[in-house]
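Private note to self, pasted from the team thread so I don't lose it. Backbone tokens:
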């Protein structure tokens, strides 16, 4: 039986939302939580101290990228990922499956694993479920993910069925290969495309294996958001109450809100850091594109309701100047702000659940950010 690492603490009477506490070797995590993405053992432009100041409790790093460069053996030699990157709080590593299927030039998928070419230098590699676990054991992350097949959207039913069953068999092989079970928790990944029946098939098979937590993969891959919400509506009632639920690759405010309302505990996405580097800030009144001419002589902060380092110290005019002058500081300050903004949103949702006023908060946020009403039709 899997070790219990999650405890539900409070729940919403208006939705499936809940707060919880996730225990790891490097500390506990309050959920629901957003995980900033440190793909290559760094959250782009930021120091670990800055990430922590933003309110991050846990970050994500990427198995595929670290396997490719600098190599998981080197990270292990450094004492593991925490020591290598000087991050003392929990780390989740994805299995590399998404990157293998989306970045590498794919040569062959077999029952044994995947043969592909590196996106860096074209070198040939083979990753099996056992290899994905071995790499993550070397990285030393607190939470590991099973190796799964990430199918494209859209995909036909028959292919998704075959893929789901293969991913289930791979998950069992990952479970059997995992050695460091005391310190590293291995999560399964539920697949099934946009087919509710296949999502249930995947979930039922994986739940029987009793993993300590469950990821929901294969969403936010180009499908309409309403389709993603429908998949979650169908899937979430089947999820166990005492296991964390992780919606992979999701990080826009609307998706975080809809996910939390449906009972999701964990999220990650490159979105806040990527759009920050492109000059877009998330604010309490909606997105701000800092390069726009109207900010040329604006002495206001990015967000008057934000207490991050950027908003406490710098004006929109200065930030626009930095971006126009191609100064790295602009990217850093915007990244600090966007990560703080999303982590603050998660904290406010946790508080809303504890005080049983989550839906009211979400409706107010939606109105201010998206200038429209939140459409939420889930019947708890």
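Design output:
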């Amino acid at each position: 039986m899997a070790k219990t690492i999650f405890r539900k603490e409070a729940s919403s009477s208006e939705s499936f939302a809940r707060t919880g506490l996730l225990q790891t070797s490097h500390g506990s995590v309050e959920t629901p939580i957003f995980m900033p993405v440190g793909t290559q053992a760094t959250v782009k432009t930021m120091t670990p101290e800055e990430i922590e100041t933003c309110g991050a409790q846990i970050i994500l790093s990427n198995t595929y990228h670290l396997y490719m460069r600098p190599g998981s053996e080197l990270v292990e030699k450094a004492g593991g990922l925490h020591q290598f990157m000087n991050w003392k709080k929990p780390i989740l590593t994805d299995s590399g499956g998404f990157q293998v299927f989306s970045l590498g030039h794919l040569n062959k998928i077999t029952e044994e694993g995947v043969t592909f070419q590196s996106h860096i230098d074209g070198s040939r590699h083979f990753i099996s479920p056992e290899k994905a676990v071995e790499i993550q054991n070397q990285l030393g992350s607190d939470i590991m993910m099973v190796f799964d097949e990430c199918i494209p959207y859209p995909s036909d039913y028959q292919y998704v069925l075959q893929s789901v069953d293969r991913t289930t068999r791979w998950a069992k092989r990952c479970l059997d290969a995992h050695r460091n079970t005391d310190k590293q928790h291995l999560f399964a990944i539920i697949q099934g495309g946009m087919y509710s029946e296949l999502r249930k098939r995947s979930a039922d098979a994986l739940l029987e294996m009793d993993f300590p937590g469950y990821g929901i993969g294969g969403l936010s891959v180009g499908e309409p958001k309403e389709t993603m919400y429908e998949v979650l509506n169908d899937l979430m009632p089947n999820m166990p109450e005492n296991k964390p639920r992780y919606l992979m690759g999701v990080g826009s405010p609307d998706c975080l809100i809809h996910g939390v309302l449906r009972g999701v505990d964990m999220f990650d996405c490159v979105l806040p850091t990527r759009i920050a580097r492109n000059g877009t800030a998330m604010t309490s009144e909606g997105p701000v594109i800092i390069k726009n001419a109207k900010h040329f002589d604006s002495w206001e902060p990015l967000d008057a309701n934000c207490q991050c380092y950027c908003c406490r110290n710098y004006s929109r005019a200065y930030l626009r100047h930095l971006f126009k002058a191609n100064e790295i500081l602009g990217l850093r300050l915007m990244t600090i702000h966007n990560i703080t903004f999303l982590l603050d949103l998660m904290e406010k949702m946790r508080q809303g659940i504890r005080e049983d006023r989550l839906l009211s908060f979400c409706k107010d946020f939606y109105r201010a950010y998206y200038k429209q009403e939140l459409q939420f039709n889930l019947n708890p």
